[in-house]
Amino acid sequence: MARVSQEHLDARRRQILDGAAVCFARNGFHATSMQDVLKEVDLSAGAVYRYFSGKEELIAAIVGEVLGSVREAFEDAARQSPPPPPDELVVPVLGRTLAARENLTVDGRPAFPRLVIQVWTETLRNEELAALLREGYASVRAIWSRIVEAYQDAGMMRPDVAPDHVARTMIAAVMGFLVQHSLFGPIPVEVLRDGLRALMSMSDERTASHGSQLG
Amino acid sequence: MARVSQEHLDARRRQILDGAAVCFARNGFHATSMQDVLKEVDLSAGAVYRYFSGKEELIAAIVGEVLGSVREAFEDAARQSPPPPPDELVVPVLGRTLAARENLTVDGRPAFPRLVIQVWTETLRNEELAALLREGYASVRAIWSRIVEAYQDAGMMRPDVAPDHVARTMIAAVMGFLVQHSLFGPIPVEVLRDGLRALMSMSDERTASHGSQLG
DNA sequence: GAGCTTAAAACGAACGATCCTTCTTTTTAG
DNA sequence: CTAAAAAGAAGGATCGTTCGTTTTAAGCTC
Lengths: 215, 215
What we know:
The structure is a homodimer. By secondary structure, chain A is an all-alpha fold.
């Protein structure tokens, strides 16, 4: 094809990104060869290298997309008003995250959660990508801290804990759930929701004095 | 050296494992070349291949050790009697995990948490290692479920949530904390402890009827 | 609108580099 | 002196990438 429509070019680029994403989710970035990718997307080297300057750029593009999707999932969930309690806040975050790129699968399982872990390891060796991750993390952390402050202001939560610490704890729970999802297969989101709900039911008797006027 | 003492053989094996672990924590298993490992441990190929049949076996050995250490950390913490509440249970788990292989560092930072993430990705592509991970996870999950049952039996936690769900949630929190530690640098364990403590202080008003007789 | 033109798009063989591993040689400890 | 341990050059395979060739589709001509 020559002098092809912009839509075709975009579709090709996406085709390559999707095929590469599947390969990377299956085997990781560096155990996946370019030949693997070429076979998966059913294109020749010449075709792929027209759209991406090399493997590095392909990886960077995918990492960027994945980080963006996760960040959006966290930020969108936090946009709800009024902010739902933690156990319910976690549902839309994971819902959106697990639904991301649902069309891409690795032996019948969604590829995206696997991709997330792979992306984490890649940020460990690529400072540029690490900076991107840090930026998104900082943003999410700040937004979620606001929600925690709301909990405290409403007397729903003891006020003597730094909101940031609670935010990081909640983010950790979501991350860990995502890991379990990747490593052990699909888990209903309700597992985490109910788990948090149960934790929330534990009256803390050691320093019980906080705003909630007990009925 | 010829006809060398058993201790020397053991020390060599450990030297190789430690050097390789640092390399793998830095760059991942498959972006690390054998030459990288050889340079790190300051040995020749002939020496290393006397102790390990190849890269694959080296990876498997390290993955096994890492999974074992993490599993021990989780199980040991659960052995405390009486079982501490979640926020305090989490402290020894992370303490032991973060202290594992503390002598190994990647540019000044502990290598072990990074290694954990790398291990996860490796289990995604190696069914044998995946089985090992599943086994350890199942064991930890069962043991932690017991602790949750104790919470419920003592009236500290609402009894209408499956203990396994709570166990998985707590494990998720620890895993996620570990991820944050790897990706963003050292975090005091108190962050997670206080975060959980705050969550535990949230009286769940929707279905408040559970055993704890509010004083 | 059929056929030709042409430049873009895709192909795929092949290159140098690097990979993991082997194997011969050298060194070393008992 | 001897056999184990370590060395390190080199083999074969595979890697990412390039580049000359072929195919294709949009535009032009008649």
